[in-house]
Give the backbone structure.
Amino acid sequence: MSGTTAVSTFAADVARDLALSPRQLQSKYLYDRLGSRLFEAICRLPWYTITRAELGLLFRHAAEVAAELPDPLTLTELGPGDGEKIALLAAALVRDRSALATHLIDISQSALDQTERRLGRYEGVSVVGHRASYEEGLRRVAKGRNGDGGLLVLFLGSNLGNFDRSAAGEFLRAIRDTLRPGDALLLGADLVKPEPDLILAYDDPLGVTAAFNKNVLLRINRELGGDFDLSAFAHRAVFDPAESRVEMRLVSLRRQRVRIGACATTVDFEEGDFIWTESSYKYGAPALRRLVEGAGFACRRQWLDPEAQFALTLFFAA
Ligand SMILES: C[S@@+](CC[C@H](N)C(=O)[O-])C[C@H]1O[C@@H](n2cnc3c(N)ncnc32)[C@H](O)[C@@H]1O
């Protein structure tokens, strides 16, 4: 996507989503260069257990994952972030293989750059970066396949939780449609846990998650000519038990009007009105397996971190 197309798509999405009730912004727009760095800082916070739990499971079970998979193998990750997890897995996979091809799919250029640098340190690992949405990137990877090798798709960090339930099922089916029988999906997902723990994970006392969330307004100001006053919005994390999801919101602290030049629009806020910027759905382990199996996969192994309540599950395309 050219820079101009990316900006016009961003402007069209922002104009449409801020006209919804409640107002929304798509969570993928949280990840510009600064947003990616702030997310890395979140991963290191004591209250955000997802990253440490998943890295621990990968560290303990990477050899078992590697033993289940064919050779030759292509490894692709949807949204690798800083690349720490794919690097851990690539090291285990390349140990018993002469070569490993990897494809990275991320809308953040800085995430791609960082992961490429990390994987570049491993002998026998080749890397192709795709700056694209998950769907577009997967299409490119599927189209570029040749030969008989297998494909392993990584979808880690509980990114599946950003989709609402029906969209999660549709997205998993879209992944399945790009795979061949015998290809695999390694899914990392955060599980339901007590509400106070969830709120601390998404509204930390250091304010890093607040900065990450508000950065989307800064980005709209810079890239779309907006005039959001960042001090007039507050970050909030709210748990909806009926939906089993944490919502990140930006709440207007006063009545105000915001102009966004590239959208040719103004948005009026009353005090207390909010913009919904991200959902994080939490699953039970059996429900998660059913969701993925319903999209045409068979569960091969599931590893749990009982303390952090996190699941790493290996599925094969049925
Ligand atoms: C929550 S971070 C997780 C990073 C990493 N997988 C981890 O587990 O720590 C999400 C990553 O996916 C990327 N991303 C988010 N939405 C995306 C989308 N719709 N298409 C492509 N990349 C996306 C972000 O840029 C970011 O690098």
